[in-house]
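Below is how a single chain appears once it has passed through the pipeline. First comes the sequence as given, then the structure the pipeline wrote out for it. We keep one example in the README because the format questions we get most often are answered faster by looking than by reading.
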Amino acid sequence: MKTLCIAPCGDRKIWKKNPNVGPTKARYVYTGHYAGKCIEYAGKFYPSSWCILSAKYGFLFPDDIVPEPYNVTFKKKKTNPITVDELSIQVGEKGLDKYDKIIVLGGQDYSNVIKELFCGKDIYKPLYGLRMGPSIGKLNDAIKRGVPL
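Resulting structure:
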């Protein structure tokens, strides 16, 4: 069974600390504690089969380049997040449809989008329903013990 792990993007990005850094690989863009921990977890347990779901750019592989700062969220439609139709096209173009099991590390907004995109796939949401603190605790524990959620 092929597994894909999807980490969330985050509000805090590298340009907040270093405005002149320029275009940056996706794995380094999201510097918030929660997004950073999800990215660390995904990279550790699924080193060749993980991506980030960006509300602006859609599915980003770790080495995809994010050109500049942005402030888009699935929670606020007025920020003009990427649509499910656009994401559905990316699923095929990026070969994400070849995975049988999808692990979603984001919260409800991310889980709902993923559920719609990967109908018929085994979707696992190990952090669903948890607040940020307990989610980070679970991720830290898994990373420390070397055992995936």
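The chain has a mean pLDDT of 95.

See the next section for the split statistics.
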